[in-house]
Design goal:
The complex is a heterodimer of chains A (110) and B (119). In chain A, 0% of the residues lie in helices and 44% in strands. Chain A is mostly beta strands. Classes of the chains: A mainly beta (110), B mainly beta (119).
Chain lengths: 110, 119
Amino acid sequence: QSALTQPRSVSGSPGQSVTISCTGTSSDVGAYNYVSWYQQHPGKAPKLMIYDVTKRPSGVPDRFSGSKSGNTASLTISGLQAEDEADYYCCSYAGSYSWVFGGGTKVTVL
Amino acid sequence: EVQLVESGGGLVQPGGSLRLSCSASGFTFSTYTMHWVRQTPGKGLEYVSVINNNGRSTYHADSVKGRFTISRDNSKNTLYLQMSSLRPEDTAVYYCVKDGSGGWFFDYWGQGTLVTVSS
């Protein structure tokens, strides 16, 4: 499968909202409600932020939210904070026990 | 606390082999599907392999199919990735990843082990 498409970077000031898009196809994002998002700080392992499109694991702040429309999923960070500056990756189940990731988006807090 | 600790990475020549291990603790290893995901230096994540809880079902991405083999030893709470016919493009940090409970996502990641394929 081809990687999911994400913007290379997004930025916002503290307190603002930013949204990261993740575009796939009818075989992955559009076919399943199994989109997840991962946050990665430099030199660290990825951390699960959103799963099953909209669900937040325990401990993840509620300023992180997910949504999906057709073949595009989105991650919104409301009330941006300095510690949110990181790389974010989307991932979708693609059937037949396979998954596909996005290329990653760097979030910069201005 | 869930812990996943990878080992076995290093420098290997093109065409060589390497076996990665992942020691798991803090959860009932034998009841979870496990994965390997890799990240090339400065680039994004790529899905590599999956194995179900009893080891009878596996899947490998096309980019590694026929060269990599995922396996597990539930008596040792350990996940493996046997890599052969290694290529420079296999150079990456390899993460051991735990399947999310009841879902199609990854809830815990190890810190990764670096594999460098170079002459």
